[in-house]
Specification:
The chain is of the alpha+beta class and 183 residues long. The chain is built from four helices and twelve strands.
């Protein structure tokens, strides 16, 4: 069993330190050497995530793979994030983690994750070269789509309720936020 004395106290965290943490249902992420701990998601969050996973997985071409959390995306030794969903080239899938830039990262907002997902993770994904970032808000319901252009995210779309978003990146798919609520 891991004890707290084994964990970093006098230095920044690295991806190697994550292996020392317990498998306790909490989400452990790193941003620039700082450990972020989040509670397990609520059922509504999981319904939306599951519905979107099914859509993405059914539409993904054979050379791409769709994953759902927890899968570690570790673009540096001091950064480790677990997007709710992600799309990556099959050739970029490592044995234990993903290190190559993602084609798509998706975060489903919850009350406790809004600031982290809309500001902190957005910035890290942008700096890490994640091509497309989707933020789903089950409360509205809505979908915000950000695409990387010249190293910066630009809003590509924002759809609400029954409006449909016809994505072309990372592959063609149509998403209506209201449909995600049924799970």
């Amino acid at each position: 069993m891991t004890t707290m004395t084994e964990l970093p106290r006098d230095r920044e965290w690295t991806v190697d330190d994550l292996a020392l943490l317990p498998d306790d249902g909490l989400q452990y992420e790193l941003v620039d050497g700082v450990l972020l701990v989040s509670p397990a998601p609520v059922p509504q969050h999981q319904r939306v995530s599951r519905a979107l996973f099914r859509l993405l997985d059914a539409a993904a071409p054979a050379d791409l793979e769709v994953f759902y959390a927890p899968v570690d995306y570790q673009p540096t030794r001091r950064r480790s994030l677990q997007p709710d969903l992600l799309v990556v080239r099959r050739e970029d899938v490592g044995e234990t983690r993903l290190t190559r830039p993602l084609l798509l990262a998706v975060e489903v907002l919850s009350r406790g994750s809004r600031t982290k997902d809309l500001l902190l993770k957005r910035g890290v994904y942008e700096e890490s070269g994640v091509a497309t970032y989707w933020v789903v808000d089950p409360e509205e319901p809505s979908l915000l789509v950000l695409e990387l252009h010249d190293g910066r995210y630009a809003e590509a779309a924002r759809v609400v309720g029954e409006q449909a978003y016809a994505a072309t990146r990372p592959f063609p798919i149509s998403v209506r936020p209201v449909d995600l609520l049924a799970g």
